[in-house]
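Kindly go through the following sequence and its backbone structure tokens. Advise at your convenience whether the structure tokens fit the sequence:

___
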Amino acid sequence: VFDRIVQSWDTANKPSELADYSVCTTWGIKGAHFYLLHVLRKKLSYPELRRAVIDQSLFYQPKVILIEDKASGTQLIQDLIADGLRPVTRYVPTGDKVMRLNSQTATMEHGFVHLPTEASWLADYLHEMTIFPNGRHDDQVDSTAQILDWCKIPIPGSGMFQYYREQAEAIGGVRSPATMTRLRAPAGISHAYGLSGRQYAVHEGHINDVASEDVGPFVASGFARLP
């Protein structure tokens, strides 16, 4: 049983042969772990795209439907909200595509992302992920990076941040940040959010003055202690 189902959409501007696909990745989230349940990848006209978002929502019943707020996604968000699709959530990315994926490397390498052993779409998904950024298409990469990034934003009720906060509350609440620690950050990470609600900037590969309640979750995500 998952804590929630989240769908992440990467939408194309037009369904021509030269355009990218529209992609929906559907994820089951359990604690700090992400389980890829399904990938829909098609070239769709705008009416077909709008219908596909509704159909995928009806089938999987997600708590959140992430759509990037730009180009075709902006109009799609407005129309779906007008349709009464309440899980629709705007996503505003930062940085370029390569930086966004690189910032999620530690989450993947430390076993927090899980794929099925068999699926009709799995070979195409793995091919695109492994050749990025040198492939012709990167829509599945964008959809994946989008959900992993969104789940690290400290919004109440979202992803790993909420999971670690719940764990802290279960053992007696969040402690005061009296003890500070230095941590080395995984490659590609420019900032990080802690259990305490603090945002840390990465300088020269490390973060300083990490609050005690943030150290454990960071280390589990690939950070290393520094003397």
About this structure: Residues 154-162, 173-178 have pLDDT under 50 and may be disordered. The first helix runs from residue 46 to 60. The chain is about 35% helix and 25% strand. The longest strand covers residues 33-42.
